[in-house]
């Protein structure tokens, strides 16, 4: 038996594959090797009803492409010579009409050896005429066939009818023949696996099978793009209602638009698996922390990286809201991942604000109306004697047990009631804890405190946080009021913590310790074309401490409004215990109308000859007889007219 045929895979043209007919059992190839020519049957001898495109033998005048003989691996003759080239065109297997026929081999029209095509031109060389060859044995047929070079497998091909060679085309139609590489004999155990379109035949997919496109479930789930506060603010109320319904927010129709935006941000954050945090930024070196509660350090603080501070131009005292993740292994604090809002504005809009130190201070030209009711004599008296303007820097000078805490509480309630748009902050330094609780329950505003049992460092940190918070609000055009009790104790705390300068004032006061308290008190101002910062601070006198007197003397000339309390009036249970003659406001003409200013000057002239206690008691009696200050002014002018 000759060596097995080794053929390189090459692409040839074959007609469209029809349905394969049933074939009977085949005889051994060894028995038919000598009788192949006798068993060859032409197409004309077959019945017409069993003719198919696979069984039809192309002729010279036929329009169909010339196929070559197609065999299975088991149909290969054993005595075929090795290295015999394969035919250029493949022919489908012939259906057998009788069990006696073991195999059908249809001769293929071979190309003459003299006919060849140059790859660079269409000219052909002389060759013998192409004519059908008589039936031959299988080895003779395969020896007479000339192998033609086929185009690359990536291109589709069609058969040139005139010369029976493969010509590449750009696209293949549905009726164009398919290319199949020649099959290699598989009788040897080491023979390579048959290929089909560049893939092993056993691994190829059946005809007509398609690769299913990946469905939505197969695609990776993408997280929804987070909504920023600016995008939510641009939505209508109906769009916010729809979004709140999707997030399962209860009673969302009861919220105002601003409140609903915060609820949506919280719900979206919890849905993504993070924590929504909000607090005041305290910058420590390059990084910072969000203090969620009471301006004090706690375990709930959130770490803010230095890159976020630089990127969003964050400043100390900013109220930052955003998403935070829980601490990882080795971490102590939550970490801020995304900044949603800064001072209730988008981070981009908040970065456009001016700097507080660059704002222009002017005299206060608008006042806070403190009169609320007929019985509130303290606010009515202050409104007449020492009016408070927006941006006022006022000093409440009070001896012990003169009623300063009660007076501050009434002033705070009057401001929050008559000017609800004003941001009110109460700062209690070195006070008793019960007074802190009472102030928190009675004042509608922020209350920051550091009681007397805490170290001086805490007093300073809380005071500076409140001041920075107020500055950030003024930069945004807000009116802010700070009620400080007391600036004397704040100066004492700085005196204990500041490094010694080597100089000492009377009472043991270091001059360097007065710089930051003055900076705090001097921040009060009315800003041109902007907001205002009003600070009313209490200064303790007559305490028996020389240091307290020095502190008062240092701050006495820095304020533009003073309100003195008299301890003797407090001992006589006269409240408010205000010393009318020593109390007053600078440039009060900018805060009052000319008519009001004229009446107040006449009131001061009338009580000038009286003592401090008699003048205060007389004025309070006249205020009790009237229901408002306007009625008091009319009654006073009527009495002055009758006397004149």
From TrEMBL:
<feature type="region of interest" description="Disordered">
    <location>
        <begin position="175"/>
        <end position="221"/>
    </location>
</feature>
<dbReference type="InterPro" id="IPR000194">
    <property type="entry name" value="ATPase_F1/V1/A1_a/bsu_nucl-bd"/>
</dbReference>
<dbReference type="GO" id="GO:0005524">
    <property type="term" value="F:ATP binding"/>
</dbReference>
<dbReference type="Pfam" id="PF07498">
    <property type="entry name" value="Rho_N"/>
</dbReference>
<feature type="binding site">
    <location>
        <position position="432"/>
    </location>
    <ligand>
        <name>ATP</name>
    </ligand>
</feature>
<keyword id="KW-0067">ATP-binding</keyword>
<feature type="region of interest" description="Disordered">
    <location>
        <begin position="1"/>
        <end position="146"/>
    </location>
</feature>
<dbReference type="InterPro" id="IPR003593">
    <property type="entry name" value="AAA+_ATPase"/>
</dbReference>
<comment type="function">
    <text>Facilitates transcription termination by a mechanism that involves Rho binding to the nascent RNA, activation of Rho's RNA-dependent ATPase activity, and release of the mRNA from the DNA template.</text>
</comment>
<feature type="domain" description="Rho RNA-BD">
    <location>
        <begin position="274"/>
        <end position="346"/>
    </location>
</feature>
<dbReference type="InterPro" id="IPR011129">
    <property type="entry name" value="CSD"/>
</dbReference>
<dbReference type="InterPro" id="IPR011113">
    <property type="entry name" value="Rho_RNA-bd"/>
</dbReference>
<dbReference type="GO" id="GO:0004386">
    <property type="term" value="F:helicase activity"/>
</dbReference>
<feature type="binding site">
    <location>
        <begin position="389"/>
        <end position="394"/>
    </location>
    <ligand>
        <name>ATP</name>
    </ligand>
</feature>
<dbReference type="GO" id="GO:0003723">
    <property type="term" value="F:RNA binding"/>
</dbReference>
<dbReference type="GO" id="GO:0006353">
    <property type="term" value="P:DNA-templated transcription termination"/>
</dbReference>
<keyword id="KW-0694">RNA-binding</keyword>
<feature type="compositionally biased region" description="Basic and acidic residues">
    <location>
        <begin position="199"/>
        <end position="208"/>
    </location>
</feature>
<keyword id="KW-0547">Nucleotide-binding</keyword>
<keyword id="KW-0805">Transcription regulation</keyword>
<dbReference type="GO" id="GO:0016787">
    <property type="term" value="F:hydrolase activity"/>
</dbReference>
<dbReference type="InterPro" id="IPR036269">
    <property type="entry name" value="Rho_N_sf"/>
</dbReference>
<feature type="binding site">
    <location>
        <begin position="401"/>
        <end position="406"/>
    </location>
    <ligand>
        <name>ATP</name>
    </ligand>
</feature>
<keyword id="KW-0378">Hydrolase</keyword>
<keyword id="KW-0806">Transcription termination</keyword>
<dbReference type="InterPro" id="IPR012340">
    <property type="entry name" value="NA-bd_OB-fold"/>
</dbReference>
<keyword id="KW-0804">Transcription</keyword>
<comment type="similarity">
    <text>Belongs to the Rho family.</text>
</comment>
<dbReference type="InterPro" id="IPR041703">
    <property type="entry name" value="Rho_factor_ATP-bd"/>
</dbReference>
<dbReference type="InterPro" id="IPR011112">
    <property type="entry name" value="Rho-like_N"/>
</dbReference>
<dbReference type="Pfam" id="PF00006">
    <property type="entry name" value="ATP-synt_ab"/>
</dbReference>
<dbReference type="InterPro" id="IPR004665">
    <property type="entry name" value="Term_rho"/>
</dbReference>
<dbReference type="Pfam" id="PF07497">
    <property type="entry name" value="Rho_RNA_bind"/>
</dbReference>
<comment type="subunit">
    <text>Homohexamer. The homohexamer assembles into an open ring structure.</text>
</comment>
<dbReference type="InterPro" id="IPR027417">
    <property type="entry name" value="P-loop_NTPase"/>
</dbReference>
<protein>
    <recommendedName>
        <fullName>Transcription termination factor Rho</fullName>
        <ecNumber>3.6.4.-</ecNumber>
    </recommendedName>
</protein>
<dbReference type="GO" id="GO:0008186">
    <property type="term" value="F:ATP-dependent activity, acting on RNA"/>
</dbReference>
<keyword id="KW-0347">Helicase</keyword>
């Amino acid at each position: 038996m000759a060596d097995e045929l080794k053929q390189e895979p090459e692409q040839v043209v074959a007609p469209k594959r029809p349905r394969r007919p049933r074939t009977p059992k085949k005889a051994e190839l060894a028995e038919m090797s000598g009788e192949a020519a006798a068993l060859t049957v032409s197409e004309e001898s077959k019945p017409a009803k069993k003719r198919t495109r696979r069984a039809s033998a192309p002729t010279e005048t036929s329009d169909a492409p010339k196929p070559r003989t197609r065999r299975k691996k088991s149909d290969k003759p054993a005595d075929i010579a090795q290295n015999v080239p394969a035919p250029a065109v493949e022919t489908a297997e012939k259906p057998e009409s009788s069990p006696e026929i073991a195999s059908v081999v249809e001769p293929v029209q071979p190309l003459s050896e003299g006919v060849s095509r140059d790859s660079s031109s269409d000219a052909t060389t002389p060759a013998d005429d192409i004519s059908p060859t008589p039936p031959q044995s299988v080895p003779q047929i395969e020896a007479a066939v000339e192998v033609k070079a086929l185009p690359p497998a990536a291109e589709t091909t069609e058969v040139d009818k005139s010369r029976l060679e493969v010509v590449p085309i750009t696209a293949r139609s549905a009726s164009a023949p398919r290319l199949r590489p020649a099959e290699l004999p598989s009788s040897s155990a080491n023979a390579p696996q048959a290929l089909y379109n560049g893939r092993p035949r056993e691994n190829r997919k059946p005809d007509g099978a398609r690769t299913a496109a990946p469905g939505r479930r197969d695609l990776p789930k993408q997280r929804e793009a987070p909504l920023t506060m600016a995008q939510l603010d641009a939505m209508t109320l109906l769009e916010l209602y729809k979004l709140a319904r999707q997030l399962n927010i209860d009673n969302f129709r009861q919220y105002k638009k601003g409140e609903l935006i915060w609820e949506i941000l919280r719900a979206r954050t919890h849905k993504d698996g993070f924590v929504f945090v909000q607090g005041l930024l305290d910058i420590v070196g390059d990084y910072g922390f969000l203090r969620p509660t009471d301006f004090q350090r706690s375990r709930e603080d959130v770490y803010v990286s230095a890159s976020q501070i630089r990127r969003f131009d964050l400043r100390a005292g900013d109220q930052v809201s955003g998403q935070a993740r829980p601490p990882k292994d080795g971490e102590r604090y939550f970490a801020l991942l995304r900044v949603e809002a800064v001072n209730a504005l988008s981070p981009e809009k908040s970065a456009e604000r001016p700097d507080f130190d660059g704002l222009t201070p002017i005299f206060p030209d608008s006042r806070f109306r403190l009169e609320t009711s007929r019985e509130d004599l303290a606010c009515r008296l202050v409104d007449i004697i020492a009016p408070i303007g927006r941006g006022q820097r006022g000093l409440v000078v009070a001896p012990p047990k003169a009623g300063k805490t009660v007076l501050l509480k009434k002033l705070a309630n009057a401001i929050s009631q008559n000017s609800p748009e004003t941001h009110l902050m109460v700062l209690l330094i070195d006070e008793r804890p019960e007074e802190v609780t009472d102030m928190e329950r009675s004042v509608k505003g922020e209350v920051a405190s550091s009681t007397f049992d805490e170290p001086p460092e805490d007093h300073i940190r809380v005071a500076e946080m409140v001041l920075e918070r107020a500055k950030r609000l003024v930069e945004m055009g807000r009116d802010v009021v700070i009620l400080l009790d007391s600036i004397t104790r704040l100066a004492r705390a700085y005196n204990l913590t500041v490094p010694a300068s080597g100089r000492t004032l009377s009472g043991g006061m270091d001059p360097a310790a007065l710089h930051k308290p003055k900076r705090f008190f001097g921040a009060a101002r009315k800003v041109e074309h902007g907001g205002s910062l009003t600070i009313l601070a209490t200064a303790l006198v007559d305490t028996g401490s020389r240091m307290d007197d020095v502190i008062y003397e240092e701050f006495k000339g820095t304020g533009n409004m003073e309100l003195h309390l008299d301890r003797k009036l407090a001992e006589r249970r006269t409240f408010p215990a205000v010393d009318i003659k020593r109390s007053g406001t600078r440039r009060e003409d900018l805060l009052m109308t000319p008519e009001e200013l004229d009446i107040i000057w006449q009131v001061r002239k009338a009580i000038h000859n009286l003592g401090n206690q008699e003048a205060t008691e007389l004025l309070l009696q006249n205020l009790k007889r009237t229901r408002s200050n306007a009625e008091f002014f009319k009654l006073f002018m009527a009495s002055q007219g009758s006397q004149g």
